[in-house]
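Hi R.,

As promised on Friday, here is the backbone we talked about, encoded as C-alpha cells. Could you run it through your design pipeline when you get a chance and send me back a sequence?
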C-alpha cells in the first residue's frame, strides 16, 4: 500500500499520444452542444421580441405582467406584490418587465410620470397603444395613472384593487396618454 511522502514528486504515467487530441475534441463537442442549446433557448424570445403584437413583444410583456397582478389590494404608497397604489403598480409592472428606463428609471407619483413624459413631448389625448400609460385628473390635478391595454380598456390599481376597466369609467377625468415607445 503506497503512502504519501511530503515533498515527494508525483509520478506521471505515460499516456497515448492521441489522448490529448481526444480530450480537445470532447471539449469542442461540449462547447458546440452548449452553444446550440443557448441558441435554441434564445431564438423564440428573439423572434417574439420582433413581432408586432402578442405576448412576446415589449407591450405584450407589460400587459401580461399587469394582468398577473389583478386582484391585488390597494394600499397608498406601496408597489407590490400584494398591495399597490396606482403609481406603484405602474412602477412595479415596468420594473418586472425590465423596462423601467422607458418611464423615467425610478418610482414617481402620477404627476411625476406626467411631467417626465410631457418634458419629452410624449403626451397626447389620442392614438394610445398597448403599454402606454394613462393619466386622469380630479379638480384639475393629476389624480390617477394606469396602463392602456387596447380597445379603450386600461388596467390600474384602484381603491377596489388592481383591475381592468374602461378608460372613461372612472370618477376622475381622462387627461392624456403617455406614449412609452415600446416594441409592439
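Update: got your reply. Pasting your designed sequence below so it's all in one thread:
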Amino acid at each position: 500500500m503506497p503512502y504519501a511522502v511530503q515533498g515527494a514528486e508525483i509520478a506521471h504515467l505515460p499516456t497515448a499520444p492521441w489522448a490529448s487530441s481526444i480530450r480537445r475534441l470532447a471539449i469542442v463537442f461540449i462547447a458546440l452542444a452548449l452553444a446550440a442549446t443557448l441558441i435554441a433557448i434564445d431564438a423564440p424570445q428573439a423572434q417574439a421580441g420582433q413581432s408586432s403584437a402578442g405576448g412576446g413583444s415589449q407591450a405584450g410583456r407589460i400587459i401580461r405582467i399587469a394582468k398577473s397582478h389583478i386582484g391585488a389590494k390597494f394600499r397608498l404608497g406601496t408597489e407590490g406584490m400584494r398591495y399597490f397604489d396606482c403609481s406603484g403598480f405602474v412602477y412595479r409592472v415596468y420594473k418586472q418587465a425590465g423596462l423601467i428606463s422607458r418611464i423615467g428609471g425610478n418610482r414617481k407619483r402620477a404627476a411625476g410620470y406626467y411631467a417626465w413624459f410631457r418634458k419629452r413631448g410624449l403626451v397626447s389625448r389620442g392614438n394610445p397603444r398597448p403599454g402606454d400609460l394613462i393619466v386622469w385628473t380630479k379638480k384639475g390635478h393629476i389624480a390617477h395613472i394606469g396602463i392602456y391595454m387596447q380597445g379603450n380598456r386600461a388596467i390600474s390599481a384602484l381603491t377596489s384593487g388592481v383591475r381592468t376597466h374602461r378608460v372613461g369609467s372612472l370618477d376622475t377625468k381622462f387627461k392624456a396618454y403617455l406614449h412609452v415607445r415600446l416594441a409592439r
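One thing I noticed while checking it: The chain has two domains: 17-50, 58-178.

Thanks again,
M.
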